[in-house]
Every structure is written in structure tokens, then in C-alpha cells.
Amino acid sequence: MVSATPCKETNESLPWSELVTLDLSDFNNSGGRERLAAQLSHAVHHVGFFYVKNFGLSQEQIDRQFTLARGFFNLPLEEKQKFSVDYEKADYNGYQWTGYRANEGNFEKKVGDNIEMYNIPKFIPALEGRYSHPPLIETHLDEIEVFSKHLHNHIVVPLMVLFAIILELLDKNLLADEHAYDNLSPDHLRYMKYSKRTAEQHAGEPMQVKGHTDLGSVTLLLCQSVAGSQFLNDETQSWSYVRAQPGTITVNLADTLSFLTGGFLKSSIHRVTAPPKDQLAYERTGVLYFTRPSNDTILKSRVDSSPVLQREKELGKLKEGFSKPVTTADFVKPKQLNPNLYEGKRAKDGGLGITPGFKDQTYK
After folding, report:
1. How far apart are CA 86 and CA 7, in angstroms?
2. Minimum mean pLDDT among 44-48, 89-93, 215-219, 347-351: which range?
3. pLDDT for residue 159 is more than 50
4. Is the pLDDT higher at 252 or at 4?
5. 157 SS3 class
6. Where are the domains of the chain?
7. Higher pLDDT among residues 179 and 207, named by residue
8. Is 40 exposed, middle or buried (CB count within 10 Å of its CB: 0-12, 13-18, 19+)?
9. Which region, left, alpha or beta, applies to residue 185 given φ > 0 means left and ψ of -120 to 50 means alpha?
10. Which end of the chain lies in a sparser environment, N or C, as judged by fewer CB atoms within 10 Å?
11. What average pLDDT does the segment 62-79 reach?
12. 6 falls in which pLDDT band (50, 70, 90)?
């Protein structure tokens, strides 16, 4: 396997964001959950991005996943394509190769796509035997399973409890139960690679991923040093860079969690732009974890269970995302059935109605 190529943090002066860092080692201490919820309340309502630390994984375990990711992407293309995604079945798990997004349906494309990704689904009985992997991944599948489950059970689940405290839910496990690991849902671990571009290519299209919101509940981004991640600051209406903080995982909130809270928990608008000049020579490898509610969860606000959301409703601030009942599966399927055509229509029209009452947006 290929070890990480050292990449120093950029020396350029960039508009870095100041984000909250949650110390999850306090979660099980007396009063710890309440302290963490108080620390987090502004970030989840106004920003949608924050860091977590002390989540129980060693740097060696994290480095191993980046090494596996690089090893996978260094396989021959024909080998990787044996494990391609099956979009005709709205199945997002498997390999998506560079250039796929540059096909005819994508009207926003200006230069060649430089993104590859490999999605590994949850390790649950309902999905057992459904997917195959290249030998490199198959050999280390037990290790990947342990890693994925740890991210879910020791970061995602505690966060759901903290969100419930912020919402003043009587049942502090309500959101955690809707996001339980054993539920059938499209959660996945992702290996992602942004290949190097020339300065001329970046000038032609400075965005590697245009502004968007993620479709799930939370996204975990493991720390890597190539800068480029930005989120839209609501207060200033400007883009702020997310700095790589050693020993942390970056968390951003996403659409389904926003639907469950009537927009109170903010689905962050974010993008990936060209690296700074002193990092242009490096590839950007990512390890991410995406989580969603169970497939049968109705994506409506939990206003009847939350005094906070009831107060938001009285103030006219509560937002219901759909005009009729929509499940997680209903929401996810249109975006995964034909993402290339979907992205093209969204770029052309500035948004796309995919379910009744909801128009998915794209941002510059």
C-alpha cells in the first residue's frame, strides 16, 4: 500500500473560520452532556460546522484508512471499475471514477473532473453479501468495519444525544434511535481523491466541488492538510476556510437533520475550492463518513416533542421541508438514481425539485 505523501499546512493567509471544538471525553462525565450541548448550541443553529476531539481513535488507526484509500486509488482503472456504483438501482456504494461527472448531462462543467470516490456501506445483516470489493479492501474489511462502527457509535450517536438536549426533547435518545447503526439506511464510509490540477486548470474552474448541502444528517471529515474546504458564513455572506486541526474530525450538519428539526439545526452550505499555491503539487485524499436516518424515517420536524421547536413555530421560524410525507429513502433515491443528469439539471436551473415542496439548490 501507498503511505501518505507529506504535505505541510499552507503558509498562505486565508480567511480561516473560528469553529467550536467539542471534547467528547467529557460526554460520560457528570454534567458533561449538558456542558457539551451548551457549547454546541450556537454552532448547530447558525454555522453547521464544528470539530470534535478525543473520540477514541488513534492517529495510527486514522492513518491506516488514508493509506488504504491511497492504495485503492492507485489500483489500475479497469480493476476499480469492476466495483462501480450501480446508479440504475439508485445504489451509491462502490467506485465512481474521474470524468464521470463531466458527461453530457452536466451543464456546469468547464474542465475535466478530477474526483474519484469509493463508498463502503454499513456492515449490517440486511446488506451482508450484497457488495464485493477488490482484494486490497477485502483483506482489510474487518479493520474497516471496526473503524466505521466506531465513527458511528462513538461520534454520531453521542452527537444525536447532544442535539436532543439542545432541542429539549423529553426522549434524549429519539434522534439516536432514528440513526442507530443497525437500522437499514444509506450510511457509508467514503474514500475520496482530488487529483492534482495545473494552475491553468484551476484558473479555468477554481471550484472542485461547487457549493451544496449534504443530503444526510451529519458528515464526518477526517483531518487532512490540503486546504480548500469552505463554508458559507450566514452572518457575513462570505466563504470561510475550514482549517485542518490535528487530532480532530470536522463535522458538518446536513439536510435530513435539518428536516427533522424544521431548519433549526443548520444544513451548512459548503464547497471545495482550489488548493493554495503552496499546495497545488499535492493530491487531496479524503476519508469521510456520511450518516442518514433509517430509510423509513419520516422527514418532518419533531415539533410536537421539542419545546425549542414549538417556540420557533410560534415565532414563524419553523420550516417544514415537504408538502407531503417523505421518508429518507424517498429523499435519497432521486439524487442517486441518475446523479449526472440530476447535477446537470440543477446547475442549469439553479435548483431542482426532487420531492414535493422541496427544491434542491446549487451555489457558487
Report:
1. 34
2. 347-351
3. yes
4. 252
5. helix
6. 21-349
7. 179
8. buried
9. beta
10. C
11. 97
12. low
In sequence order, what DSSP letters do the residues of 277-294 get, joined into one string? GGGTTS-EEEEEEEE---
Which of 135, 136, 137, 101 has the alpha carbon at shortest distance from 120?
A: 137
- Cell 463518513 locates to 289
Q: For cell 469521510, what's the residue?
A: 288
* The domain defined by 21-349 carries CATH number 3.40.50.450: no
- Report the range of poorest mean pLDDT among 141-155, 200-214, 344-358: 344-358
Residue 286 CB contacts under 8 Å (≥ 6 apart), including other chains = 69, 190, 191, 192, 193, 194, 221, 222, 224
- Entry pTM: 0.91
In the chain, alpha helices (H):
32-42, 59-73, 77-80, 135-139, 141-151, 157-166, 174-178, 199-204, 255-260, 307-314, 328-337, 339-349
Residue predicted with more confidence, 299 or 349 = 299
Question: Which residues are CB-contacts of 67 (< 8 A; sequence separation ≥ 6)?
Answer: 1, 2, 3, 4
Rounded to 10°, the helix 59-73/141-151 angle is 120
Q: Output the nine-digit C-alpha cell for 78.
A: 479497469
Q: What is the pLDDT of residue 103?
A: 44
Give me the residue label for grid cell 471496526: 146
pLDDT of residue 164: 98
CB-based contacts of 337-344 (< 8 A; 24+ apart in sequence): 337/87, 337/88, 337/90, 338/87, 338/105, 339/87, 340/87, 340/100, 340/101, 340/103, 340/105, 340/106, 341/105, 342/105, 343/101, 343/105, 343/106, 343/108, 344/104, 344/105, 344/106, 344/107, 344/108
Torsion, CA 204, CA 206, CA 212, CA 213, rounded to 10: 150
Report the alpha-carbon distance of residue 26 to residue 38 in Å, rounded.
13
Q: Which of 65-79, 151-165, 265-279 has the lowest mean pLDDT?
A: 265-279
Sign of the four-CA dihedral 156, 159, 163, 168: positive
Tens digits of residue pLDDT in 170-182: 999 999 999 999 9
Owner of C-alpha cell 449490517: 124
